[in-house]
Design a protein that fits this description.
Helix 1 runs parallel beside helix 2. The protein is built from six helices and nine strands, in the order H-H-E-H-E-H-E-E-E-E-H-E-H-E-E. It binds S-adenosylmethionine.
Length: 265
């Protein structure tokens, strides 16, 4: 083969190699783009599902809020809901539990909007009392003020209960001073305090300390049950108190309701 043809062939072979390299690069970037498109599509699906869930929750809360105002007819705005306080879905649930099952002996850990709404329920029933344990004197005073300006002091009281040392099965906890809890059977126990920043699994002591004060058909309600600490608390409670069945309610921040199995309530 003449030298010039050989050179031409080598050049051709080099160009074919370059072309093959360029094609490979194109393929690589194509599959990278496809991968990115896939993950964008996944993200979009997740965002759509989250937006749908938020719309559903928002609408359900709106309905619960309307139902609360219709049932309570408070004559003035109810105190703030959500954020530090319970949401309308939990407040409606508590209101209906009191009304439908005549839960007249209510103890709650952590005062606030729940205290006011449950006091309205007691007033509608015409009997019963809510006792709210409160470790923070400022918020105790605020809740007392809310009750008093609505004429509800007959139906609910805030008990000042400092966080104190308590030992359960050899383990130390900080929980409300039990001396502040009035005597009598508890029909409903709402566990919405102490706040999470007072210690890990801060709400755990409620059931071990109060289980023998609960009536046979009592209901225990734990708010914020989507949080890791509260999930761990529910697991501990159900292991230690197998007589209780737990039910997870589809509330914004999660609520768990525990009842003794087969009590008909
Ligand atoms: C998780 S919050 C729940 C209070 C109540 N169970 C409710 O849902 O309305 C717990 C703590 O919030 C505090 N708190 C009460 N009233 C408050 C208010 N107006 N603003 C901010 N925090 C308040 C109290 O110290 C209470 O123990």
């Amino acid at each position: 083969m003449p030298q010039s043809d050989r050179m031409l062939l080598i050049e051709l072979a080099n160009s074919v190699n370059e072309l093959a390299g360029a094609i490979k690069e194109l393929r690589d970037s194509q599959s990278e783009i496809m991968g990115r498109l896939d993950s964008l599509e996944q993200q979009l699906k997740q965002n759509r599902a989250a937006a749908k869930g938020q719309t559903r929750t928002g609408y359900a809360q709106f309905e619960d809020l309307l139902a609360l105002y219709r049932d309570i007819d408070p004559g003035q705005s109810l105190p703030r809901m959500r954020n530090w306080a319970a949401g309308p879905e939990l407040l409606r649930f508590l209101y209906e539990e009191i009304m439908e099952r005549r839960r007249t002996g209510v103890l709650e850990c952590g005062s606030g909007t729940t205290t006011v709404v449950m006091a309205y329920a007691m007033r509608s029933l015409g009997s019963g009392k809510v006792t709210a344990l409160e470790h923070n004197p400022h918020y105790a005073a605020l809740t007392r003020h809310e009750l008093s300006e609505r004429g509800l002091t007959e139906w609910a009281e805030v008990a000042d209960a400092e966080l104190s040392d308590v030992v359960i099965d050899g383990q130390a906890w900080r929980w409300y001073d039990v001396e502040a809890i009035p005597s009598g059977e508890i029909d409903m126990l709402l566990v919405d305090g102490p706040p999470g920043d007072t210690g890990p699994q801060a709400r755990y002591p409620a059931l071990p300390l109060l289980a023998d004060r609960l009536s046979e058909s009592a209901l225990v309600v734990l708010d914020d049950a989507n949080r890791a600490d509260e999930r761990a608390i529910v697991q501990r409670w159900t292991e230690q108190f197998p007589q209780f069945e737990s039910q997870r309610l589809r509330h914004e921040r999660g609520t768990v309701a525990l009842r003794r199995a087969d009590n008909g309530a």
